Amino acid sequence: MAEKIFAGVSVTVTDEGYLTIPSQWTKEIAIEIAKEEGLTLTDKHFAVIEYLRERVLKGEALTIRSIGKSGVVDTKGFYELFPGAPLKKATKIAGVAKPVSCV
Amino acid sequence: MNKIVILGAGTGGTIMANRLYKSLSKKDWEITIIDNDPIHYYQPGFLFIPFGTYKKKDVLKPKADFIPKGVKFVLNKIDRIDPKTNNVFLDGGDVISYDYLIITTGTHIKPDETPGLMDSLWRKKIFDFYTLEGSLALHEFFKTWQGGTLVSSIAEMPFKCPVAPLEFVFLADEYFTKRGIRDKVKIIYTTPLSGAFTKPKCTLVLGDLLKEKNIEVVTDFYIERIDNDTQTIHSFDGREVKFDVLSFVPVNMGADFISKSGLGDDLNYIPTNKFTLQSEQFENIFILGDTSNIPTSKAGAVVHFASEILTENMLSIFKGETPKAQFDGHANCFIETGFGKAALIDFNYDVEPLRGAFPIPILGPMKLLKPTRINHFGKLAFRWIYWNILLKGRDLPVSTNMSMKGKIVD
Ligand SMILES: Cc1cc2nc3c(=O)[nH]c(=O)nc-3n(C[C@H](O)[C@H](O)[C@H](O)COP(=O)(O)OP(=O)(O)OC[C@H]3O[C@@H](n4cnc5c(N)ncnc54)[C@H](O)[C@@H]3O)c2cc1C
């Protein structure tokens, strides 16, 4: 657990840089985290990010599969928006916990 | 008369039929169990069939042999349930009503979810070992194969017995070594995970073993499609792996009637209270085994431990009490590592697999997270235990919830 300043605001993050309090998140913070990941956010990114936040705040678990079938973005598109490890990157930028595959 | 209906007569359903039948008065309770398949498969045995260790006859028995005579066994397919009116609808139109329902219909492979998987090479050069037909077909292929690239892949998380594809490559390493052609066989393991397994300590141990056995691991490989003409699997991020033979764990999903009844998530797993094993939606519905969404391994051993908790909770509810027993997600899995050895992992919702001795501190006789011969005998003995103790709802000499005894915390 550590404090980190994003867009002039201090937030708490895990060792891997995930926000621990999703309500501390703002769009400005997202833009800065994305920069660290080498990404420039577009409206398409934000559409996905907002969808992810909505689902996590409802207590749902995220999987690439369910995101790919959501109608917000397909799996291919999700990989294009957040190359490499889309779920890990997108959740980090969306200010929610890193999804665990627990089994 | 109170009616309990059990959906699915696999591992979980059979255990519950036995436990409840023993615990309840015959004159007040009627128990019905429904399954569309008269054969009980010992699924852990499928892993050994490609290598000729087990034959077809070693993994099959009639379901009816394991269901108490006083329990009504209905052989039919479940079409849907209506949880508001407490009715189960079967193929052909029969309706069965219940007061309490247990859903234990497991999880099954869905090869049609992966583009290209069921094209021209299906069961010719592309196999699964999650069905009897698949593992038998792979055995036929292996018998005459002279070498090339063997790729073992996983389509999607979660899937039942998450260690099975790892065991598969370890056993393949042994099999081709013994046939004297290991130098002609390249073994590649692809996974959508970032490491060999989901739990960190276990991933380290298994990662070392894979390296030692010269098995190449490709991580974060989330499969988009399979090209049968070029014999390549393609990931969503544009990587390719070529194969001469592909052993594939297809997408696993719960039964279709679950989505039809509006009960499941996108993989037809049912939201379940992970402590009490009650459905999150309906108080008189209980979920056991692979079809629940509880965050632990989908494995027979888990089903066994969970069944003890579920029985206790159902009996409390029948007495008008609130369910008190809490499941901790206890899983206990042998991992075959080849050449007559196996590793053992013991964990729960909160504690990842640790090193140590099991079930008795220091003495063991089994060792956790370390390949030993005695663990391998444990795995082989599991088949006898499965048919003779587990299915019959008898207790094993192992604690239901996980014990920290013998575990080394570092
Ligand atoms: C290759 C392999 C290796 C494995 N190795 C191990 C191991 O080493 N250790 C371990 O603990 N576990 C292992 N497992 C996992 C274990 O077999 C399962 O976790 C366990 O059987 C799950 O029990 P269940 O009752 O949830 O489902 P199942 O035992 O699969 O039973 C589900 C039942 O529901 C029935 N059914 C489904 N849909 C319908 C319908 N619509 N109508 C009527 N009936 C229906 C099916 O016919 C089936 O009989 C392995 C599995 C596989 C495939």
Write structural notes for this entry.
- The complex is a heterodimer of chains A (103) and B (410).
- With 103 residues, chain A is mostly helical.
- Helix content of chain A is 44%, strand content 10%.
- Chain A is built from five helices and two strands.
- A two-stranded antiparallel sheet of chain A has the order 1-2.
- The longest helix of chain A is centred in the middle third of the chain and has 15 residues, at 43-57.
- Chain B is an alpha/beta fold and 410 residues long.
- Chain B has three domains: 2-106 and 255-318, FAD/NAD(P)-binding domain (3-Layer(bba) Sandwich), CATH 3.50.50.60; 111-251, FAD/NAD(P)-binding domain (3-Layer(bba) Sandwich); 331-408, no CATH class.
- Helices cover 23% and strands 27% of the residues of chain B.
- Chain B has seven helices and 25 strands.
- Chain B has helices at residues 11-23, 132-144, 164-178, 200-212, 256-260, 300-318, 373-390, and strands at 2-7, 29-35, 39-41, 60-62, 72-75, 78-82, 87-90, 95-97, 100-103, 108-109, 126-127, 148-154, 185-190, 215-218, 223-227, 232-235, 240-242, 245-249, 252-253, 285-287, 331-338, 341-347, 355-360, 364-368, 407-408.
- In chain B, strands 5-2-1-9-20 form a five-stranded parallel sheet, with helices on one face.
- In chain B, a hairpin with a 4-residue loop joins β6 (78-82) and β7.
- The longest helix of chain B is centred in the last third of the chain and has 19 residues, at 300-318.
- Chain B is globular and about 65 Å long.
- The mean pLDDT of chain B is 96.
- The A-B interface holds A 63-66, 69, 75-76, 78-79, 83-85, 101-103 and B 156-158, 162, 192-194, 198, 220, 222, 224, 236-237, 265-267, 295-298, 349.
- Flavin-adenine dinucleotide (FAD) is lined by residues 8-13, 34-37, 43-44, 46-47, 77-78, 104-106, 129-130, 160-161, 164, 255, 257, 289-291, 298-301, 303, 333-334 of chain B.
- Flavin-adenine dinucleotide binds next to α1, β2, α6 and β21 of chain B.
